[in-house]
Amino acid sequence: MQAQSLPTPRDLDRLSALLHQQGQWLRGRQPGRAMADRSAMARCFDTAAEQASQALRAALTAWWPDIPFARTESDPRRPPGSRHGIFWLCDPIDGAVQYLCGLPMWTCALTLVVDGAPRVAIIADPTGGHLYRAFAGHGAECGGERLTCGTGRDPSLATLGTSFPNHPKRPQTDTDRFLSHLGRVIPHVFAQRWIGSATLSLALVARGVLDGYWEVGGDESDWLPGSLIAREAGALVTPLTAGTGILAADPALHAQLAHTLRGSEPENPRSA
């Protein structure tokens, strides 16, 4: 695959319009209240997510026919059907519980992955009315304004986001680790909040609405779009501990949060 067949920063406008359109379509299909039937919830989610994915796939394939397309269930380090390590990764609804319960704080996200790293990321927040986007090396923006993460925040004044392992299939060890980290950090920060969507939480770090975000586990594909946008806004994004989880904040606050969350002296962090 030649370099000229890849998207460039000038393609962000049409990609943003595509994500906005699908986000609004999904919002129009969102239930107005929580459902009592699990099978109905599954049908609602699967139908909406699949139709949005098909629309995204059709447009992207028409524009860049050589780039494969995958949903977030794929391993970002093993692109499907590509010898070049380049593919689109789509998460049509990140924040499924919120979506199915008629709540805000869910997103529609698209990432161009190149050799396991995000090159382009676009996140539509349909209920909040925001669209975040970034091209690696060119900064991040929202609504035409360049994003810059918060700086110099004292931990005692910091508001953090997290996601807790509430899916029944998540191992008990993830829950135990989450509770351990939560117990360490709460006494040292102004507020700890759960936004719901990891993608949106990381975008809010980029916007300076949240001062930091942390999560246990290994949901790398969930973190790819938001991590690029946060990093391009100046945040340091690393594993939370020993190559797992994620921690994002401005560099100074990151070091202090790492010390608190890990329960040890801050490591020399490697970028996630």
Shape: globular
CATH class categorisation of the largest domain = Alpha Beta
CATH superfamily of the largest domain: Fructose-1,6-Bisphosphatase, subunit A, domain 1
Largest sheet: 7 strands, mixed
Number of E-state strands: 12
Helix content: 25-40%
Pfam family, one: Inositol_P
Binding site for Mg(2+) 2: 93
Binding site for Mg(2+) 1: 91, 94, 222
Organism: Paludibacterium paludis
What this model shows, in words?
The chain is an alpha+beta fold and 272 residues long. It has 2 domains: 3-146, Fructose-1,6-Bisphosphatase, Chain A, domain 1 (2-Layer Sandwich), CATH 3.30.540.10; 155-262, D-Maltodextrin-Binding Protein, domain 2 (3-Layer(aba) Sandwich). It has 7 helices and 12 strands. The chain has a 7-stranded mixed sheet with strand order 1-2-3-4-5-6-7, sandwiched between helices. A hairpin with a 4-residue loop joins strand 4 (117-125) and strand 5. Helix 1 (12-29) runs antiparallel to helix 2 and helix 4 crosses helix 7 (251-262). The protein starts with 11 loop residues before the first helix and ends in a 10-residue tail after the last helix.
Main attributes?
alpha+beta; Fructose-1,6-Bisphosphatase, Chain A, domain 1; D-Maltodextrin-Binding Protein, domain 2; globular; metal ion binding; Inositol_monophosphatase-like; inositol monophosphate 1-phosphatase activity; magnesium; Myo-inositol-1(Or 4)-monophosphatase
Write the layout of secondary structure elements.
Layout: H1 12-29, H2 38-63, E1 69-71, E2 86-94, H3 96-100, E3 107-114, E4 117-125, E5 130-135, E6 140-142, E7 145-146, E8 159-162, H4 172-185, E9 191-194, H5 198-207, E10 212-215, H6 220-232, E11 236-238, E12 246-249, H7 251-262
Parallel strand pairs: 1-2, 8-9, 8-10
Antiparallel strand pairs: 2-3, 3-4, 4-5, 5-6, 6-7, 10-12, 11-12
Cofactor: Mg(2+)
Family: Belongs to the inositol monophosphatase superfamily.
GO molecular function: inositol monophosphate 1-phosphatase activity; metal ion binding
